[in-house]
Amino acid sequence: MPYITTKNILTYARDNKIAHGAFNVNMPCQAEAIIEACEEIRCAAIIQVAEPGLAFIGGRVDFLNGTLEEKKLGAKRIAKFVKERANKSSIPVSLHLDHGRSFESCKAVIDAGFNSVMIDGSALSYEENVKLTKKVVNYAHKHGVSVEAELGVLAGVEDHVFATNSTYTNPLLVVDFFNKTKCDSLALSYGTKHGAVKGDNVVLRKEIVIASMENMRHAEIDGTLVSHGSSMVPQYIVNEINNLGGAVKGHGIPLEQLKEVIPAGISKINIDTDIRLAITRNIREYFANNPDKIEGSKIYNLLMEKPEAFEYRYYLKEYNDELQTNKINSSELKEILPLIKKGVKEIVLTASIEFGSVGDANYIK
User: Fold this and answer.
1) Residue 269, H or E segment
2) Of these residues, 15, 98, 222, 292, which one is catalytic?
């Protein structure tokens, strides 16, 4: 099946009032797991990598300090892997840059082979956001790459994305932004929040989604709307981690609220935190069930030293070279790798079923 842009996938989702999960990865085996899970339920796959993830894939374990050159290497590695795997797949596959921070980073992944990018100018003034987004769109569209932008600011912390307070998207500006930038999709700020700690009384402003989509229809804008900061932080996984010695806290976006905004116009829902939680639960469970594997482990002490943390890039960093080249030599990693993939699949399958995208692979142009 084709390696296609997110625009193709999201246009179908919008027209059929479903949504697609878009899942963040930081190593090739996770991309493999997403494709395998989507193949099982015959839905298209949207694989995302954020800028720090590119640096990690490029070999930089302190990924928040990655250089542009390390990000370029990471982009080439993951694009090569995903394209080769997509060409063997029975479903459409898209590879998307999540939260690109500059024109240079967007250009780098486009040149590496990504077919979709997100440029995040939401922290800039409206005029500067339009200017930056338009510059990325001009370059991307020349290369057949779709572009997602953001209007409004989401609160929360996730990798290099940080904001203390939200600024809700003004639906009256949505049409103007699409017209001036020619972007393909737009992430709204309507009550979602980055990270695991979203509060336990989240209320999404569905009216912002409805008004934005109605304005777009009236103006005949052929664009789609996207939801960031939308991890559900499943409490059963949080509880399982804590029963295994963790101290994780946090609440996500209620599933029922996400399902309400899908027919209102949200076509893509970003998921990252949930995957981190599921992988961490699986690996904690592995050591609890196999205490003989603890001595000599390169993972165990890093995993246990921060009970409140679930950042797998930290406790897997000793194996980063093997993970990124997909050449698994160590005996410990050979046992851990299936647990990583299993955690990814759990989240991908759950989200895809709940968001209504099961079985759409053969209908997307």
Assistant:
1) strand 266-271
2) 98
User: Which residues lie below 8 Å from residue 44, measured CB to CB, with a gap of 6+?
Assistant: 4, 9, 20, 38, 91, 92, 93, 94, 357, 360, 361, 364
- Residues 63-109 have pLDDT tens digits of 999 999 999 999 999 999 999 999 999 999 999 999 999 999 999 99
Pairing of strands 20-24, 45-50: parallel
Would the pLDDT of 162 be above 90?
Answer: no
**Is 98 considered catalytic here?**
yes
pLDDT in tens, 183-242: 999 999 998 875 554 456 678 899 999 999 999 999 999 999 999 988 999 999 999 999
Kind of pairing, strands 156-158 and 161-163?
A: antiparallel
CB 37 within 8 A of CB 285: no
Distance CA 278, CA 342 (A): 8
DSSP line for 143-169 = TT-EEEEEESB--EEETTEEESS-B--
d(C-alpha 229, C-alpha 97), whole Å: 15
pTM of model > 0.85: yes
Per-residue pLDDT, 152: 84
322-363 pLDDT, tens digit each: 999 999 999 999 999 999 999 999 999 999 999 999 999 999
| Number of residues assigned to the chain | 365
119 neighbors 100 (Cβ within 8 angstroms): yes
d(CA 114, CA 82): 9
